[in-house]
Amino acid sequence: MGISNGTVTTRAAAWCALICVLWSAAGGRALAASREPVRTRRGMVASTNGVASQVGVDIMRRGGNAVDAAIAVAWALAVVHPAAGNLGGGGFMMIRRRDGHATAIDYREMAPRAATRNVYLDARGAVIKGEGGPLIGYRAAGVPGTVAGMELAFKKYASGKLTWAQLLEPARRLAANGFVVTHRLARSLRDRENAALLGRYAASRRIFLRDGRFFNEGGTLRQPELAATLARLQKGGPREFYTGRTARLIAADMKRHSGLMTLDDLRGYLAKERAPLRGSYRGYGIISMPPPSSGGAVLLEMLNILEGYELSRMNPQSSERYHLLSEAMRRAFADRAAYMGDADFVRVPVAGLIDKAYAAQRRADIDTNRASTSDTVRQGQPAGESAETTHFTVVDGAGNAVSNTYTLNGNYGSGAVAAGTGVLLNNEMDDFAARPGTPNQFGLIQSERNAVAPRKRPLSAMTPTFVLRRDGNLWFALGSPGGPTIINTVLQIISNVVDHGMTIQAAVDAPRLHHQWLPDEITYEPLGFSSDTLRALQSRGHRLTAKPRYLGDAHAILIEAGTGLRLGAGDARQGGVPIGY
Ligand code: DON
Fold first, then answer.
1. pLDDT for 130
2. Are 174 and 80 in contact (CB under 8 A)?
3. In angstroms, rounded to a whole number, what is the distance separating the alpha carbons of residues 530 and 89?
4. Residue of the nearest CA to atom 8 in ligand 1?
5. Residues 378-414: tens digit of each pLDDT
6. Helix H or strand E segment including 512
7. Which atom belonging to ligand 1 lies closest to the Cα atom of 461?
8. I need a labelling partner for 386 at 20 to 30 A (CA). Which of 93, 178, 398, 513 fits?
9. Taking CB atoms and a 6 Å cutoff, what residues make up the pocket around ligand 1?
10. Which H, E and C letters describe 232-268, residue by residue?
11. In whole angstroms, what is the distance from residue 178 CA to residue 569 CA?
């Protein structure tokens, strides 16, 4: 038909082009084929940016271990991936040494002392939406933890072969000399929402928008103030950020803009080393992040629930499997909303939530054919206690591994660069329940346990994770950005590998869906799901909403059985680049 009729052919071509564009925007990828993971013998870095991955590889070539490399990658991403890489934000670094010792470094932002329970409510008791609220501008920023987190990791777990200043040097150079603007960065800085946010603040507007003369792909982005801040950190050491000139510059700019954070808050920031959460899935060990992230606990609860079903007998893209994934997500997220917050401030029944017997109880009201409704699925009764982020994974030649997720929260955080520092400040305060029971930017409803309080850490969903082989050795390490969808991205990749035998790259590429209890709907990557599957899910009673683009940006490294090769998997959705040597 198309051959004999020119119009139809043109139309068909137009449709095809449209579908191709949508397809690549969605990042959808059929399971029938997937790229090979990148294979190398010694060290590997999988991050969202090739320049940053290369910085980490160079550090390992010079004798650094995975922790040295991770620290240098974190600094590099702060320069080349300003939407999420940061000095002005926070995150979590999971480390697993080759001897099996695993630990979690918590460098999540802390609420300034002036951030009391109702600080983000207006006179009528509603959450303030624009400037002054938890999302936009100076008042949205929590006390940044990244520098203190890298300091703790460096002091306890670096190789000792490279100095603190040497790990900062590649980033300082990238900031001083500039780097080539990628298509992705040029598009992101022109994006209407991002440009409107950054355009509000003089320093951000000048640095990232060139006062309206937008960067083009192939242009050069230089950040001299950030380079100077990195140089001060090289000279003065990590405390410089919290007590030196950088701290004074941040505090002074905060004061000028009625921010909450003071010099005292900066001086009082503490990174903490915590015991990771441990569980298992079908005999494979899982090591993940404890509170103040909900990631590890929610992930383990979902895996425990799913262990009760033979997923490996189901097609990975069947409605049967998607239904069970969604029901597990619904229940674990209901528990997240009810029980989770900063465990330094409130009681979080983590042991109860990740208990296998509790999962059996949660499984009891799952109908394998019909969707539950979130109205009727409330939190369970666990036993008492006894809008961008970025993830990268590093494994070195010796077998030490790092799984690190850090963030400014939204794209470019609060939008504000602290004047004179080049440092973009986070808007992590929105991860608190500014008003318990009212949804935040991710539509998450949370309880009193995650209410704002001075020096408290907002609840996170970041889920840096290790999966072990049955003999206890490292199998793969992974994580992702995506707000609450992070936990479900990690869940689906683990299930794709364990239950369906996918390669690590295919597991990362496979289409994803998300359920977070409320709103009561499955969101999904539009072109990753067939209309038959979607109809089948609807007929089981699920409500479905297509996501405009993609879910997550996962970066994983797997150690191949037998050969010990490092297999790096980057997420096609954002063009992630694993590099090894
Ligand atoms: O800590 C959290 O859970 C969020 N601040 C993460 C935000 C995020 O992943 C946004 N990225 N797409």
1. 93
2. yes
3. 39
4. 483
5. 888 887 644 579 999 999 999 999 999 999 999 999 9
6. none
7. 3
8. 93
9. 388-389, 407, 409, 428, 431, 460-462, 481-483, 486
10. HHHHHCCHHHHHCHHHHHHHHHHHHCCCCCCHHHHHC
11. 28
As a whole number of angstroms, the distance between CA 168 and CA 180 comes to 19
How far is Cα 86 from Cα 51, in angstroms, rounded to an integer? 15
**What is the spatial distance between Cα 136 and Cα 429, in angstroms, rounded to a whole number?**
10
Whole-number percent of the chain with pLDDT over 90? 90
Low-confidence ranges of the chain (pLDDT < 70): 1-33, 384-387
What's the pLDDT score for residue 31?
55
Tokens linked to 248: 């004074």
Secondary element (H or E) of residue 279: strand 277-281
- Tokens of residue 322, six digits: 């998607």
Among all residues, which ones are annotated catalytic?
389
**Amino acid identity at 432:** F
Please report the atom of ligand 1 found closest to the CA of residue 458. 1
Structure tokens at 324: 């069970």
Any residues with CB less than 8 A from the CB of 152 and at least 6 apart, and which? 105, 107, 271, 273
Of 95, 94, 152, the C-alpha closest to 399 is 95
The two structure tokens encoding residue 437: 């029971």
For 305-324, the pLDDT digits (tens) are: 999 999 999 999 999 999 99
C-alpha span between 74 and 94 (Å, rounded): 13
Q: What is the pLDDT of residue 387?
A: 53
Nearest CA to ligand 1 atom 1: 460
Contact 199, 205 (CB under 8 A): yes
**What is the C-alpha to C-alpha distance for residues 405 and 77, in angstroms, rounded to an integer?**
12
